[in-house]
Amino acid sequence: MKKLKILIIFSLLLTNVFANQVQVENFVERFYQTILKRHSEPLGLKNWTNELLSGEKAGSDIARGFIFSPEFQNRQVTNDEYITILYNAFFNRNPDSSGFNNWKNGMNNGMTEEDILDGFLNSLEFANLCQRYGISALEANHIDNNSTFNTKITIHNNSYSTHDIVGIFLKRANINSWGDNYINFRIKPNYLLSKPIEISDCSKKYDLDIVYENGKSFIYNINIKCGEEYHWGFNDKGIKSKFENIVLYNQKSRYKNYLKECPLYNLDIANSKSCKLSQLPLIAQESNTKIPTKQLIMSRVVVSQKWMGDRFSELLDIFDSDIRELLGAVTAIVIDEDINPSKYKIRTGAIYLDPRGLWLTPEEAETIVDKDDFRIGYGSGLKFISFWRYIKNNSKYAYYSTDFNYKEHNTTRIIDDIKYSFARLLYHELAHANDFIPPNSIDELDIDKPISYITSNNFKKGKILSKKLYQESPLTSRELMDIGKVLYHGRYATQEQKDMSAEDIGLLFDNDVANELYGYSTPLEDFAMLFEATMMKYHYNFERDIGFIIKPTNENPTYKDYILGWGVRNRIANPNVSDRALFVAKSILPSKRDWDDFFAKDVGESKLLISNRNWWDSIVINTTNSSLRKIIKVPDMREIYFVLDCKKTY
Fold first, then answer.
1. What global pTM score does this model have?
2. Count: domains in the chain
3. Are residues 106 and 78 in the same domain?
4. 262 in the same domain as 162
5. How far apart are the C-alpha atoms of 643 and 509, rounded to whole Å?
6. In a domain, 432, yes or no
7. Which residues touch 459 (CB under 8 Å, ≥6 apart)?
8. Looking at residue 181, which CATH number applies to its domain?
9. To which H or E segment does residue 321 belong?
């Protein structure tokens, strides 16, 4: 009888587990059919289901994965179609006319697809749908509800404000507000308040409501992780910043007020709207010539330290004029000590530059916030590492790579140490800007529309250049696209991916048409990587190396332990890749020169690196004589920093 009871209990448990798995599979299958308009493939269904069952992902994570997948984005649905799909997928019904019109009006007035998606995923209706399938809507990796974690938050009412903060409401935390007593609680302009709070729910996002004495209230959807410290600045115009001391470099700029009021550095406020182009136009729209003047560009520079603007100005004098031409597609240039990594934001039309590529003195370096790229731990379970570098004349590094351990080394640099690396950064980020705002479209833009409306509309209607590239010549390796999700979007690696060697990745890469593994992050990055490599070759004759390294297994590896499994130099010269690079160059800088002639005569050739050497010894392709190379420093093996003093060898 006892054995029978155990058997019955085990059978019931097995039945419950199976039933739960079937429920979750049905949940995922709904997304395939309502969003992608097809049935699932076995591997995709299995991966999504396992991530939900394990708690690694929540319902909202899966939803974002489908909506922002290349397959869905390439369909280029209209606003009406997009809103209807969200209703069908996340509310399990057709849209009601009132709700549909509200969302549609929001998109017409600058709300992005991501803003609309957030509204659906944070709704009670979506939470109820997830509950019916036995999964969590918003919170993956659940913790014990009895556990609490201390998190310190500092709120700064920055100097732009004209009213006191009298209420701070952090929803879904144990302490729901700081401002219950409006008489005793105030943060005056240019003052701050720090408070440790207990959070029992390590959610990805919280709603933070900031209330001012004049009754204005701004709701921000923000990331808060248990145990970390946060410092945010706000003002009563609805601007949020992690840095409260950002200022306009040129205080006499005619756009001084708009550069303060437009949400240039407020990227996640729920009720923010981009400025119209009539308020803050693209730089090219204000320029009387095709190449904007340095003075005009510097009037759009916003910095947290004056030296950052000084250095940017100095580099503009050195760089080719095409940098200024490319800057015509942005509304502003933001350089702040807290930015890492650099980025272009379609909501603001501005580029955000990491200042670690600009400092020259230890004193300047000390003003920069120590902060790793948030992707640094992604792909830690894989057997390979992806490295890159720029090489000149088959033998030496094109420039000093930025030493991110600058505070330990008390380093001093000169402008020649930073000019090439910063040019590379600008070509990359400005490729994104010119992708979303193609140069030949600037004169036709509606200045009464917000910049976010224009960029998102260009994206949805297939007007951005990277979509046109994909229509002509898409990347095809599904395996590398999935690896890109692991390395650059934080998805957990499957066992099959964990078993892939550096050589396996190289062979897949060799059979496709990307010029860098980062191109498998998104089609936008594929486009930007092609342009970056082309411009570095065109201006400086620098050739990009890509290497897939066998991950060292010893505890304290040196440079000799980073063995090349597969690598290639000057990939844009590969016939299968050069046509794509040519398309990108012609699209962004059509009048620069005869690009056909450049790719036919001057781009050079692509060569495989010699595998089974360490990354350092693979620099000179046709020699193993390491005496030709001189190491200056290798301070941190997350990236390897070399300076070469080599003779030309052929």
1. 0.67
2. 4
3. yes
4. no
5. 28
6. no
7. 73, 346, 436, 467
8. 2.60.40.2890
9. helix 321-326
Phi and psi, residue 292, nearest 5°: -60, 150
Give the residue among 3, 2, 55 at the shortest CA–CA distance from 24: 55
Do 185 and 320 lie in a common domain? no
Domain membership of residue 372 (yes or no) is: no
306 CB burial (10 A radius; 0-12, 13-18, 19+): exposed
> Residue 177 pairs with which residues in a beta bridge?
169
| Rounded-to-integer distance, Cα 454 and Cα 439, Å | 14
204 in a domain, yes or no? Answer: yes
Task: Answer yes or no: do 521 and 391 share one domain.
Answer: yes
Report the largest interatomic distance among the alpha carbons of the chain, rounded to a whole angstrom.
92
Question: Does 425 reside within a domain?
Answer: no
DSSP state of 608: E
Reported for 321-325, long-range contacts at CB under 8 A and 24+ positions apart, including other chains, are 321/291, 322/535, 322/589, 322/592, 323/423, 323/426, 323/427, 323/430, 324/291, 324/292, 324/293, 324/294, 324/297, 325/290, 325/291, 325/292, 325/589
Phi first, then psi: give them for residue 301, nearest 5 degrees.
-90, 130
State whether 94 and 167 are in the same domain: no
Give the percent of the chain with pLDDT over 90. 37
Residue 488's domain comprises 384-412+464-628
Decide which of 633 and 242 is more confident.
Answer: 242
Q: Helix (H, G, I), strand (E, B), or coil: what is residue 456?
A: helix
Best-predicted range by mean pLDDT (33-47, 356-370, 440-454, 525-539): 525-539
Q: What is the mean pLDDT of residues 70-91?
A: 87
